[in-house]
Amino acid sequence: MKRINGKILLIGYGNPGRLDDGLGPAFASKISMMRLNNVTVEIGYQLAVEHAEMISNYDVVIFADASVSGSEPYQFTDVEPTLDASFSTHSVSPSSIMGLAQNIFHAKTEAYLLTIRGYEFDDFGERLSPQATENLHSGIHFLKSALGTTSYEVKS
Amino acid sequence: MVASNTNPKSKRIVIQPVTRVEGHGKVTILLDENNKVKQARLHIVEFRGFERFIQGRPFWEMPVVVQRLCGICPVSHHLCAAKAIDQIVGGENLTPPAEKLRRLMHYGQTFQSHSLHFFHLASPDLLFGFNADPSIRNIIGVAAEYPELAKQGILMRKFGQEVIKATSGKKIHGTGAIPGGMNKNLSIHERDELLKDIDQMVQWSHGALNIAKNYTLEHMDTALEFGTFESNHMSIIREDGAMDLYNGGLRAIDKDGNKIFDHVDNQKYTDIIAEEVKNWSYMKFPFIKSIGTENGWYRVGPLSRVNTCDFIDTPEAEAARIEFKDITGGKPNHLTLAYHWARMIEVLHSIEKIKELLHDPDLQGKDLVTKGDRRDEGIGVIEAPRGTLFHHYKVNKDDQVTMCNLIVSTTSNNEAMNRAVQKVAEDHLSGQPEITEGMLNHVEVATRAYDPCLSCATHDMAQMPLKVTLLNVDGQVIDERIKQ
Question: How far A69 CA lies from chain B's nearest CA (Å)?
């Protein structure tokens, strides 16, 4: 188990109005309730360029997103900054954000992507599918362990 | 994506999606057997149907629900819906604190949206050239070559987002505007936090304006022909003729600057504007009724607003407007590439207005909501960053929405964008033996100048690559380019 230390920024993103696409915000919301001293939580619909500046003020950033076809129940990977030519304000990848953070704001921030597997995306509704909810809890348990905060209870 | 050819003597090129615009669209260019452009069209390939989706919902939800049309310009939809719903609750005569708070939110939105577009979507073309290596001609290239500019763009966008957060509660999809007013004022702490950076933002806005102005002046030969054509222009206008992004009557001018209509009560927009449907796009084609579909189309947005207004009521933006108008001898400016210059005049105007408002003690006022006689219909009109935006609702006695009509800014520019695409395709692709990425980018540059928000028409969750296919006269693929 990798232990994550330092000043941490958690960015949970996705559209809570599109069922399991809301996994990222739901995850961030749960972590926010833990009120951890060293973790700042940001919740949004999508990543935006100004996140690059925000990230540069932290030792570690964790991006939390839903995945359509990734590993179950979640996947935790390093994020490498990329020189990504494709860019739109509707769609900016974590690696592009890290590229901007490194190039423009000289960020030394470690970056990780936590993708939680979802299953239902093709309808409107502010709820998670049962399996996605289970995966969400697995992801929370994993991050609590990685942060060394297993004694904290998440209020639901 | 390859569209089917109905004419065996023609070739069709498809650009999908158009990149560095908000949302997804595609361009098809139909060539004849001599590689001459026969027809070029911008299609909107997504369908969302928000107008239908919200029928049956309670009207008071509209300012919160309808802004989910878009993650980029939600504030415009939030405020426009709120203006319409104000009328349903009889609260359209807002208290001074409520109106000023909404204006502050709106100027924050315009400031961040224009900044983001200019620095991160348009500047790669302007700084590196339309034909530059696409691996450099992007925001990462700007960050590497012009890091200070890229930084300014991000921090200007961030400042605008902070204004939105302070007034609406959230950076995206906030809830500040409610029927008949606002649900919060601006605290002294929030005001002081914003004032810390305001002078820096004014200075950077001048810098951005100079880049856009100097680019246009130094490339006037290009600008004069690039996707340029004469047109009508429309916007809302303040009673005294000043540019007003939040409220006013409707004004339209023709290509020579003559007024087609002026100070029309925006509640009567259906008397002067209608929409035409074409079978190849989900986006409608609005037109001025008195002129008709053929010649009644018009442009909206920064270029049109600078063209239609008599003056701007902030001194530095007004000086910039006068300089802008001087190059056309006071006549309307029709240069598609001049949208960038006009957009930066509005950035300066917006930050001047934000500064002015932040010093207004009404923002700490507590009289935030007003109500009156209930009505069954409400119409909101606002100047969104991309142009005039209409929200129109009818409700029943159970407070449910029974009818919704939205004319979004990008829709009003539909015909103009199609003409720009057609002209650039004719000028830069016609007769060429091979279609290069640079040539195709010219077509995208013309569209990009309008800063279209295609997501405001519909929305698609999927990622789509840019795929361009060239077919010969027999319908066989002879060239294909894919941009992820």
Answer: 13
